[in-house]
Amino acid sequence: MRITSNTSFILLTATFLLAACVPNRKYEEEKARASAALAEADAAGTKAREAETALTELRGSNDEMKRRLVRLEQDTSVMGTSLRTMTVQYDKINKLNNELLEKYNKLLAGSGTENRKLLSDLEALRLDLMNREDSVASLAKRIGDKQAALAAREAELVALQAELAAKDAAMKGLKDRVSAALTGFEGKGLTVVQKDGRVYVSMENKLLFPSGSYTVDAKGKELIIKLAKAIEGEKELNVLVEGHTDTDKVLGGSAVKDNWDLSVLRATSVVRIMQESSKLDPLRVTAAGRSEFVPVDATDKAKNRRIEIILAPDLKELMKLVKD
Fold it and tell me: Could you give the CA distance from residue 49 to residue 165 in angstroms, rounded to a whole number?
């Protein structure tokens, strides 16, 4: 039997209609996938909101650190940059979430082929969103680490300031004890001052030595012994004894070669008396000669001829705080 062109058209049309009809089971599968995609989109939106909350908390913490740690401006600047980066990441997550919703709406209205493509695109967007969320979490961790480091540094600064205050108080007390021990000599060529965290005891040579000599006289020994006794109980005190001369040249024929030699010999003479008359730890005592090169008065040579005893606290513990 011959098939007419009209019959062929009818059969072809019926075939297309049958192919276009989606079985009920197929429809249910597509509906389930669409529901899953919607759930994933909702979950992504929830995570994005959580990221926004975390960002708000981080901004508040960063502002607090800026107020407290002005001296650490560079670190705070880094945190600010990180927060701005995090804001950009969050905006991108919002954009991705909107794209997911748009894809989902198209998925509900599209054909089977379009649905498969949209599902593929949806999965790619979901993975991209997960990666961006991981990036935000990593950034949040780095900011947290920075905050912890800044808090630790602030604690170190507080400890350092407390230690310095304690050292200053101790040196003030030492200055008062030394002044009390040497009351009869102050104003007679002896001064006791506290500056730069140290105590300076300055003795003009007329209190200690005959002219041109490095042998301490009886009155000078009394002065040095009183000073040594006043400080011998200080276990964390470094003592520097400096000899100073004027610009006059040493006379020829003397056992002393020059002003360098004289300044050193006078310093060591003072150190010996301090050691012999007290319990000062020799490891904490240093003798030094400065010759004529550190004058205190350009118009008065007598003031330049002197012994300076510099009492300084042991700063080893402070140095540990700084290095750590």
Answer: 49
Asked if residues 199 and 168 have their Cβ atoms less than 8 Å apart, the reply is no
Q: Would you call 262 exposed, middle or buried from its count of C-beta atoms within 10 A (0-12, 13-18, 19+)?
A: buried
CA gap 268, 282 in Å, rounded: 12
Q: Other CB atoms closer than 10 Å to residue 76's CB: what's the count? A: 20
Contact, 197 vs 311, CB < 8 A?
Answer: no
Q: Which amino acid is at 281?
A: D
Report the amino acid identity of residue 99: E
pLDDT value of residue 221: 96
Torsion of CA 104, 108, 109, 114, to 10 degrees: 70
Q: Is 128 exposed, middle or buried (0-12, 13-18, 19+ CB in 10 A)?
A: middle
Which residue, among 86, 89, 34, has the nearest Cα to 56 in the 3D structure?
86
Sheet with strand 285-289: strands edge to edge: 190-195, 198-204, 306-313, 237-244, 285-289
Cα–Cα distances in Å, from 55 out to 49, 84, 89, 149?
Answer: 10, 10, 10, 19
Distance CA 288, CA 209 (A): 17
* 319 vs 88: which has the higher pLDDT: 88
> Which residues have a Cβ under 8 Å from the Cβ of 261 and sit 6 or more positions away?
250, 289
| Strand, coil or helix: 88 | helix
Distance, in Å, from the CA atom of 253 to the CA atom of 269, rounded to the nearest integer, reads 21
**Please, what's the b/e burial string for 24-51 (b: 16 or more CB within 10 A of its CB; e: otherwise)?**
eeeeeebeeebeebbebbeebbebbeeb
pLDDT of 116 strictly over 90: no
pLDDT of residue 2: 46
Distance of CA 303 to the CA centre of its chain: 45
